[in-house]
């Protein structure tokens, strides 16, 4: 596309790592797209646009010229195809006006295609399909067209058919169904030399191709007639001859059907980009069929508790819900909440959809302007962060190159360089006046945000040394600003920094960027499961007295502790005496008893010792509690935190209080010592019982893979199936349309080596209804599960999970886990 538009002088190749938009070293090494890249070019090139005439495409001079006869600015975003980078696609789709979905002519509609197609449907993005790689052995255009109907839930409108040499030979060009001509490309050429054959010429020289072109034109007119009344009228005016419909009438009809809300018409084009076949007609289709920014639905905005369209706000038609506090503030400041005045104050509105840390240019914030203009050096207000900063440098991006501009106007995609605060999904506005903040409620204006999918894969991240830890976290913050689908958390149990992402490749690339691009001195390790311990039996009552200086604690104090396991199903509130202090945390219960003292710390009998003046009963209870919690954080057998454990601490002033020597800190230390001693007593005969986190897992698979997934979860992974369901509840519009498509009614040209049996099999292609498996599975078994699930389901399975509870490990699994924890020595 860039070569034919005159933007580059050579055609890049993915295999050679010479493409313009795949410029990251990791992208060139792997031959895949990892991050989306933006580039702006003109089609047709300005010079060609001035010279073009209707006769060039064989059209009547009296008919309306197609849009592709006039030069258009195209903002192109090249997005990844790998499932691990689904968020990169999601945030790009959010700001686009139309999409070209590229399919592999050999593989057909792949799993990730279905995912991205559904994401585009969320935003109601008009889409056209380009079936690529038709030059490869095994390419099947017809089969792929039928798969579009069965898997993507739309009616494929075949606008081009492949042209094979002699019907079954080399792929040499395409048949243009709209203009009724054959486009023959030079073998081994750069694609600029195209020989055009009118239908009359094809009938003489290539009769089979002419016959297929007639069939394709009839099928296209019939399909569009079912969805567009204007084409039906044109069909009757053309004396009910499919060939008499003009190209402009067909293009207008296709465009109306494509831009209709929840459209089920999918225009399909053919080509082989590696052989430079079919790219220019695809560019014409982009300008002819896909909408301009002005033709897209009004962007959704919210202003405080009110919501509506952006143009409604600008016109003053947006109704604000009454907020008495805001109204009072405005009145006090002498401002007006008149909707028209608010709309007039808004000069520009943009959405930040991507942040990149460029080693040369610094932080680049990619924005899509939805209204007005964003001017260089203008003050921009971030309504999400409630902060202002100036757009000192505005750029128009050409992949990793850029050109400075003075302003970015509505519909354009550009970059703000050097922004300190903006993140993915932030709304940026410029407004009239010179105040630091915009008038209320304009400061609450927000465009519809970008959803971040939940991460499903985890790995540990460790600095090379403690000195590097701060630097690692600073570099991580930069990485998270770039890619919000990564999440970082600190595991309280293991002390590890854990990084979560969409898949193994996603985390591999994140680690690569962190170490090689951001120069963080860190390494990624395996995830450490946060196990828990629980006691095998109750302990005897143990008393410990802290004397002298121990663990940096001066003073003298004592404590009596008793520990016992809590049954899983017991209501802990029933086991606490009425007059005792109790505290529950992480499945543990701590009880502090002061049997010989009243609430004010006075002895109940004359023999008891009263509390010293510097301590109160609540302070003693808190000190004992902190000591017990410290002991519970490290188990006696494997050093994992304890769970399902009851700790009873008893204070007897005559034994545990030593006047002014007894301090808050010494009481805490005494409680910890006593609790630890009780733990050792409870495990003197038998080691602690290990508990593991069990996850609630929702696995989404198609009907065909359901049996394999259930078998794997219940047998191989020790999981428990909770329920099986389908996706009928809350099914999207695309799911409903999938059920309406009758594959046998879809027109598709016969593939060169297609047999009758293979075609009939396609015609009766069973719909892949989605099913949801709800299960409870140990977390250990879910590490690395995503890759296994994709291999079992042909790449179509996805899952999300959350912690359900901790359960005891029993039998062979307990022995295996203990052996692993002890490094193979038991």
From TrEMBL:
This is Ribosome-releasing factor 2, mitochondrial. PROSITE patterns: G_TR_1, G_TR_2. It comes from the Eukaryota. NCBIfam families: small_GTP (TIGR00231). GO terms for molecular function: GTP binding; GTPase activity. GO terms for cellular component: mitochondrial matrix. The keyword Secreted does not apply. One of its GO terms (biological process) is ribosome disassembly.
